[in-house]
Every structure is written in C-alpha cells, then in structure tokens.
Amino acid sequence: MKKLTVISGGSTGLGLEIADLLVKSGKNVLILGRNKENLEKAAYALSKSTETGRAESLICNIGNEKEVSQVPAFINENGYEVDYLFNNAGQGLFSGAKNTTEEMIDRIFEANLKGMILLTTAILRNTSDDKELTIINIMSTSALLGRADETIYCAAKFGARGYTEALRTEFKGTKKNIIAVYPGGMRTEFWNKVDKTRDLTNFMDPAEVALKVVDAVTGNARLLVTDITINRK
Fold this sequence. Notes:
Elements: E1 2-8, H1 13-24, E2 28-33, H2 36-48, E3 54-59, H3 65-68, H4 70-77, E4 80-87, H5 102-125, E5 133-138, H6 151-170, E6 176-183, H7 190-194, H8 206-218, E7 227-230
Parallel strand pairs: 1-2, 1-4, 2-3, 4-5, 5-6, 6-7
Helix pairs in contact: 1-8, 5-6
C-alpha cells in the first residue's frame, strides 16, 4: 500500500513548511484544516514543488469527531496507510485569568487537546498493530512552563503533553512511536490572531524549525528521538 503522512494545521505556518519538505522528499502528504481556500492554495503550491511526492487536502475540524471520521475514510478509499501523523493544529490565547470564560476554555481545549486526541485515535484505530506508525505531537514550550496571561493555553498544552507521555507509555515496545515537539515562538499567522502588537523580529523562522523537526523525525531509522525542544538563540 502507498504510504501517507497526515498533517493537521497543514495549510499555513509550521505545518505547511513540514509538508513542503516531506513532499519534496517524495512523500505523499495529506494536509488538514478548516479553511477551504487556504487548503486548496497550499495543496496547489505543494504539488507544484515536487515531481515525486503527492499533496492532497481535506477540510476537517479535528475537534469534531464526525469530521475526523472522514480522514480514515479518505485513507482507505485511496489505498493509503499512514506512516507519519503530525498533530500540528492549534490555537493561541493570551488573556488574564480573571477574564476566563467557558467559550475560551472550550475553544482552546478543542483546538489544542481534544482535536489531537480525536485525530490520533482515528489514525490508531485505522492502523494495524503490525504496521509502524510515528505520531509527532507538536505543542509549544508553553507545555513545559506556566506563563502569565496564558493560563488556558498552558492548561491545554500541559494536557497535550500529558496525553503524549501517556500514549508513549501505552505503546512502549510496539511499532508505534510517539515524539513530542516543543517549539518556541515563530513568525507565523498564529500571532495575527492572538497578539498583533507582538514584536516578532527575533522569533524563529518556521521553515528552519520545520527542517529541524523533519531531520529528527525521518533521519536514522535505527535511532528514535522522543522529545524535541526548539528555541531561538
């Protein structure tokens, strides 16, 4: 069967840069996202950048179980089996603890934790026990350290970290590999939605971060990197 890499949040930022590197290396890539226009634009650009790999897109809110069910359906209908899953989708929030609302909690937890769990579960169920699968959960350094004005965001990312570590424990000794990635601030559209006043001059280039991640994940087949923290100098 044909191998496939699935990338959530793959139409912009770090996800798109990872997809670009993988497609250029000859891999088949499926990018997921909510915005049809962004997805189609990204898939077209990715397809133009390669002669060997294949780029496809699927509209999917990973926080919605019904929409997530379309992912394994797409995989099976097109004769693929997933060898890499990049859980990259997420959403930021910078707000004081006193300003917290139920809507904020639901939105941020869905984007950063619930969606990761639902998509991972769907891919695991669709992958035979005897097949190798590498799951890369891309979080944030906010999953490692609590920060002021990021209470809800940190809570969601800490949850994602806990899920990742528990997943690794559950599948220890099997053909399922779990990798945690904790990148620091990058110059992406992420900031346009949460803090347009932030000075991004010294923030990391997502293309450089993507190169670090892809090199670590797809490098020496005899070695497995389990945790990657990437910060700017």
